[in-house]
Amino acid sequence: MTRRQRNHWLDLALHGAGLGATLLGLGVLAALLFDIFSDGFGRISWDFLTSFPSRRAENAGIYAALLGTLWVITLTAMLAVPVGIGAAIYLEEYGGRGRWSRIVEINIANLAGVPSVIYGLLGLGLFVRTLALGRSVIAGAATLALLALPVVILSSREALRAVSPALREASYALGATKWQTIWHQVLPVALPGILTGMILALSRTMGETAPLITIGALTYVPFAPDGIWSPFTVLPIQVFNWVSRPQEAFLANAAAGIIVLLALLLVMNGFAAWLRDRYQH
Amino acid sequence: MTTVDSDTAIPSLAGVASLVSERGTVETPTKVDVRGLSFYYGDMRALEDVSIQIPEKQVTAFIGPSGCGKSTFLRTLNRMNDIIPGVRVTGTVLIDGKDIYGASTDPVTLRQHVGMVFQKSNPFPKSIFENVAYGLRINGLAASKTELADRVETSLRAAALWDEVKDRLSASALALSGGQQQRLCIARALAVEPEVLLMDEPASALDPIATQHIEELVFQLKTNYTIVIVTHNMQQAARVSDRTAFFWLGKLIEFDLTSRMFTAPTAKLTEDYVTGRFG
Ligand SMILES: Nc1ncnc2c1ncn2[C@@H]1O[C@H](COP(=O)(O)OP(=O)(O)OP(=O)(O)O)[C@@H](O)[C@H]1O
Ligand SMILES: [Mg+2]
C-alpha cells in the first residue's frame, strides 16, 4: 500500500469513527426522548398544565411547579446575571494578568465543578437560617444564583476576552476612557457570547433538584407562589416526587412533567439563539 | 544625526507653516520634542535613547527594518503603550512643550490631541455614521444632533470618503472595502480634531489605487495636522514626507529632510537601507 493509499484509508476510518460516535450520542438521546414522549405525551393537556398536584394521578397537574420554576429562574437570572457580568468585567478588564488573577480564575473554574448539593447546604446555612429567608422563592433563587454564578462569570469572561484588542485600541486612540471603551465597544460585541453562557447556566440550574431539596423546598405544594417570600416547588422536584410514587399512573405524570421542562428549556435556548442573531448584526 | 533646525533650506512646500529665522534660514516650529527616550517591554529594550524633533504641520516618515521599533516609538507619542502590561518608558516627550509623561498629563486627554490610524483598519462593528460620531460623542464635541451630523460630514469629506458613503451612512462599516475602511478610520481620527496624527503603515494592506488615495490624503492633511507616518515603502516615504527618520535596532540612526535622506544620507546604514541593500 502506498503512503497515499494509507492516508486515504486512515481518513476514511477516522471519518467512520467520528460518525459512529455522533450517531451513538444521537441514538441514546432519541431513545430517551422516545421513551419519555411515549409515556408522557398522552398526559399533556391544558388541565395538566393548570391543575395543582393531587393524590389521584388523573387529577394531578403541574401548575404550582411550573410557576415555581418560572419564579425561581427569573429571580435567579436577576441575581446571577448582573453580579456575574460585573465580576467578569472586573476580572477581565481590571483584574490584571498576574498570579493573583490566575488563582482567582482557577478557583472560579473549580466552583463551577462543585456538586450542586454543596450549594444547597450553603444556601440552607446562609439564606434559610442566617439571613432567615426561610424556605422561600428568594432563598431558592439565591441558592441557584450561587450555583449559576461561576458559569456565568467564566463564560462572560471568555466572551470579553474574545473581543479583538484592535477594537479596544481603536477606542482608546480616540480618547475614550476605559469604561467608555468597555461600555460602548467591548460589551456590545461580547453580548452574544455573554447571553449564550447566561442561558446555558440558567438552563442547567433549571434542572437542579438537589440544592432546592436541601434548602427545604416543598414536594407537595397545592398553590402557586404569590411573591418572593412564598414557599414553592419546581418542576424537577415535582417530577422526582411523582417518580417515587408506586402507582403506574404517576410515572406518566412524571414523563409529562419532563416534557414540560424540556419544552421550557427549548424556549429558553431558542430565545438565546434569537438574541444572539439579533445582536450579531 | 541631523535635527530639525538644520541650516538647510526646506524645499518650498505649499501650506507648510514655516518661519524665517534671523539668520535667514528656514525653520519650522517643533511640535513633538523627544529627548533621550528609551522603551522596555519587560526586560527587553525596544528603543534606546531616541531624540527627535518632529516639525509642526509637516509629514515625518519613520522607516527601518521590521522589528526596529517604529510602531513602538509611534505608540509612545500618544501613550498607547500604556495599555500593555509590564512596559516602561524613560526620557521625555514634549508636545507643544508639555511633558506628556508628566504627572499632570492624562493619557485619555492626550489621545484626543494625538490621533492614531492603525496598520490594519479597525472600524467599529457599527454603522459608518456611528464610527465617526463615536469620538465626538464620548468627548462631548457636538452640542446638538445637527452639529454632530455636520462634523461627521466634515470629517468624512476631509478623509475623501464622503462621496462614496453619503447615501449609506447607516450601513455597516464592515461592508466597506479595505481602502474605504482605512479612510473611515482616518475620518474617525480626524473627527475629534487632533493636532498630531500618527499613522502606522496605513496603506500596507491596500492595493495601489487605494494607497494612492491615502497618500494624496496625507499630503492634503498636512495643511492642518502634524503627521507622523510609518512605512515600509521607500517610494511612499519619498513621495509623501518632508522628513524621514531611519530606525535600526531600536535606535534612531538618522533624521533629515526626506530629499537628503534618499540622495545623500550621512550614515552608511541609512544608505544601505534606502538603496535596498538590506531590510
Ligand atoms: N507587545 C509587545 N510585547 C513585547 N515585545 C514587543 C511588543 N510589541 C513589540 N515588541 C517587540 O519590540 C520590538 C519592536 O517592535 P515594533 O512593533 O515596534 O517594530 P516595528 O519597527 O514596528 O516592526 P514592523 O515594521 O514589523 O511593524 C520587536 O522586537 C518586537 O518583537
Ligand atoms: Mg510596526
How many DSSP-defined strands of chain B? 12
Overall structural class of chain A, as computed from helix and strand content, comes to: mainly alpha
CATH level-4 homologous superfamily of chain B: P-loop containing nucleotide triphosphate hydrolases
> Which percent band covers the strand fraction of chain B?
25-35%
Q: Whole-number average pLDDT of chain B? A: 87
CATH architecture of chain B: 3-Layer(aba) Sandwich
Number of helical stretches of at least 4 residues of chain A = 11
CATH topology of chain B: Rossmann fold
Rg of chain B over CA atoms, rounded to whole Å, is 19 Å
- Which runs of chain A of at least 5 residues are low in confidence (pLDDT < 50)? none
Order of helices and strands of chain A: HHHHHHHHHHH
Q: Biggest β-sheet of chain A, characterized?
A: none
Number of helices of chain B: 10
- Output the CATH homologous superfamily of the largest domain in chain A: MetI-like
Oligomer: heterodimer
Main sheet: strand order of chain B: 8-9-10-5-11-12
Hetero groups in this structure are: adenosine-5'-triphosphate, magnesium ion
* Helix share, percent of chain B: 25-40%
Identify the overall geometry of chain B.
globular
H-E order of chain B: EEEEEHEEHEHHHHEHEHEEHH
Report how far apart the termini of chain A are: 51 Å
